[in-house]
Amino acid sequence: MKHDILQKLADEMYKYSAYPQDEHFTEVAKALVSKHPCLAEPGSSTGCHGWKNSLKFKMGNLRSKLHRCGMADVSVNSNKRTRQNPDGEPPSKNLKKPRRSESNFLPNFPQGQDALALENPRQLLKNEMKKRTPNAALVSQLMNQTFSLRRKEIVEEQPPVKRMLERWPALFRKQQEFTRVASKDLEQDFFESLDRHSPRLLEIFKSKKGIVGRTLAEILAQVEMKVVE
Known about the structure:
Layout: H1 2-14, H2 22-35, H3 49-68, H4 72-75, H5 115-128, H6 136-145, H7 147-157, H8 161-167, H9 178-182, H10 186-207, H11 210-228
């Protein structure tokens, strides 16, 4: 039963990150014994120390299996020092893993395609961007199609910005990449947060005195006038 529990937990954690931090293992282990007190470890100060350690080993085993299956987000770190590869880098050095919110850190190539096959749409994309008025829909389609190739170059090769601009001129357009990497609409999130905090911001603005207060009062009066109109 313990094996099945650890396997399920590792599978769920992998959905968020292939390389969880120590605090993540702690949170998951605590949540496990909190929801199922019968699994708490007698004599342990936390009741879950053993679960945490076992989960770390299970996560390592899962990464090994995924590496053998060719999963890109773990294969990228396959050149680390092991018994079979004593000349590799230390396991903890230059580890390539997603930062916070990078839900699509290093996706696999689309089924049936490889880097060579994706070069053609990349070149089409580059040619489209040379036009005075690029087709926005086509650019977005080609950027989505070549996303895995682009991320592979960025993560594995870490090329300079100049080279990326030459190969991927559409990369620097507004919102072309953030939404793909983080699965979030940055502009929408910003305006939603602004709406949420606006009442408090207005209170702060109205409480200001002096020149700053008068300036803010004039701006707020103009805003309120537009709202009424």
